[in-house]
Design goal:
2 copies of one chain form a homodimer. By secondary structure, the first copy, chain A, is of the alpha+beta class. Chain A folds into 3 domains: about 60 residues, Winged helix-like DNA-binding domain superfamily/Winged helix DNA-binding domain (Arc Repressor Mutant, subunit A), CATH 1.10.10; about 70 residues, Winged helix-like DNA-binding domain superfamily/Winged helix DNA-binding domain (Arc Repressor Mutant, subunit A); about 70 residues, Ferrous iron transport protein A (FeoA) (SH3 type barrels, Roll). The first copy, chain A, contains 8 helices and 8 strands; from the N terminus they run αααββαααββαβββαβ. A 6-stranded antiparallel sheet of chain A has the order 3-8-4-5-6-7. In chain A, helix 1 crosses helix 4. The longest helix of chain A is centred in the middle third of the chain and has 23 residues. Chain A starts with 7 loop residues before the first helix and ends in a 5-residue tail after the last strand. Bound molecules: manganese (II) ion (4 copies). The structure holds a DNA duplex (30 and 30 nucleotides).
Chain lengths: ~220, ~220
DNA sequence: GTTTATTATAAGGCTTACCTAAAAATTTAA
DNA sequence: TTAAATTTTTAGGTAAGCCTTATAATAAAC
């Protein structure tokens, strides 16, 4: 069964590098390995293979980056992923927090013709249900100008723009608490000694750990006028 | 990446055995190998593995059959396949003759929750766009009572009920000639020496080889009254 | 009943993607 | 600048799915 173009592992590596290296720095192989649930030796091997194929650049002891070719390939997978998420939520009424995992399988089995027909059917949505931008068919992505909740200061307020990177565990946690894109947010205070952030979201105050706060992005309401 | 349940090769073997053994006889390993595009040695190896897993029964020198477990697994894949075909044709407006191949990838990457939500969204269709019945969620299939075109006699007439088994080459050929389910058919004559069948379909007469005729199923109009 | 064709097995190999354990190289922190 | 932590490499293995060539077993045809 020679399904050349259908290589789940390669696509997941590229997608994960794209996530970890968001912000144009290098993705450490150790982080890659952890995210993908493989040993660092395995990840290193795969990184070497992908470097030979011209999809990654590896700077030893620093980390890996996508080449232009690798970036395009990653964006195409991400496009399929997010389009499927839209379909699964908007038409199949599947739960917001579950569709990420369903789409993570479909994304590797979707022909370009199907992807583009799906995009047209969905009327070319701009973001996935979790707020992340859907790359164009040629792999361009709109630059985000939002801020991680973890970078804000008490007193700041705005609205949740997106959850990134996504994972079932995180989405489940957030869904259970109604912490979704669009919700208004007020940063109340930060507990001392690197404690949790006290955040009022949709009327209720939540204590969020720093790690979770790093995954919640906000569009600030600027009231310095 | 331990995607256990997502084993394309195994699923394709089971599906192919189901197709070849339609009519409760045994599927020869040689036919399996040919259909899957692998060597007979490879197919034999895989058949052994699937026998050990309790999915197939192998009668040496005769062929293989699905066990009850294997049959259910195959029907579940076929259900996903045909549901996707419906979606691709009816909602994404993709070509009738191409969706078989697109669905052949998606069928291995579709969670049960997605499958059932899709079935509900499509309003539980009974057949795929090529006329083949969609198994129920528990793996039951409606018994067909149609006849291959190749088994008919000159003078018989009726309508095309389905194309089976499906393949891109065959569907492309038929689509180009408007030979689709629902079309009225009149069997005019059969050329001597195992020659082609002369068939009037939707007003036009086509010369169909015996092999193609074996893939076109008809519901006869009984006019012995 | 012997020949021929089909089917099965044996033997040896390949690639991808994973694993563990141990050693070496490099960076970072004390 | 030395010690500690991180990162990489080496070595040896596994399993799934493929491959070819060659031989053995069985079934079908003559
Ligand atoms: Mn995936
Ligand atoms: Mn998403
Ligand atoms: Mn398939
Ligand atoms: Mn079909």
């Amino acid at each position: 069964m020679k399904h050349e173009s259908f290589n789940e592992s390669v696509e997941m590596y590229l997608k994960t590098v794209s996530e970890l290296a968001a912000g144009n720095d290098l993705a450490p192989i150790s982080a890659l390995a952890e995210r993908l649930g493989v040993s660092t030796v395995s990840a290193t091997e795969m990184v070497h293979r992908l470097c030979e194929k011209g999809l990654l650049d590896h700077t030893p002891y620093k980390g890996v980056a996508l080449t232009e070719d690798g970036r395009r390939r990653a964006q195409r997978v991400i496009r399929r992923h997010r389009l499927w998420e839209c379909f699964l939520v908007d038409f199949l009424n599947l739960p917001w927090e579950k569709v990420h995992d369903y789409a993570c399988r479909l994304e590797h089995a979707t022909d370009t013709a199907v992807t583009e027909a799906l995009a047209a059917f969905l009327n070319h949505p701009q973001t996935c249900p979790h707020g992340n931008p859907i790359p164009s068919a040629v792999g361009d992505v709109a630059a985000a100008n939002d801020t991680p909740l973890g970078d804000l200061q008490p007193g700041d307020h705005g609205a949740i723009s997106r959850i990134y990177p996504e994972s079932l565990l995180l989405l489940d946690y957030l869904a259970a608490r109604g912490i979704l894109p669009g919700q208004p947010v007020e940063f109340e205070e930060i507990a001392p000694f690197n404690g949790p952030l006290m955040i009022k979201i949709g009327g209720e105050t939540h204590a969020l750990g720093q790690e979770i706060a790093a995954h919640i992005f906000m569009e600030l309401t600027d009231d310095t006028h």
